[in-house]
Amino acid sequence: MAALRQRGTRVWTLPEVLLIPGHSDILIYARDAKIDEPMRMPKHNFATIWEDTPISRELIDHYEGNLILSSLELVTIALNCLHNRQKGFYLPGDMAYALMGLLRRRPAIVKSDTAFQAFARLSLANDNDLLLERLICILPKYTNQPWYDMEDQWGVSLWDVNPTTQVCGIAADDTVIIDGGYAACIRWKAFALVANLTRDSWRRIIFAFAFRFSPHIFVTGAALLAVRTSNLTAIGAILLIVGLVFLLLSPYIIRVLYTGKIWGTQAWFFGFEGYLDISTIERHIFGTDLHRLQWSTNGSPLSLHESNEYGECCGKDPTANPETAKKVRQAVNARMGDERIFTLVDTNTMTVTLFSAVRPPIAVVICGEEGGMQRALLCSYDSSAQTLYRESVLRMDTVVLEQMARVGRVRLGLNRTNFDSRADDA
Question: What's the pLDDT score for residue 1?
Answer without folding.
Answer: 62
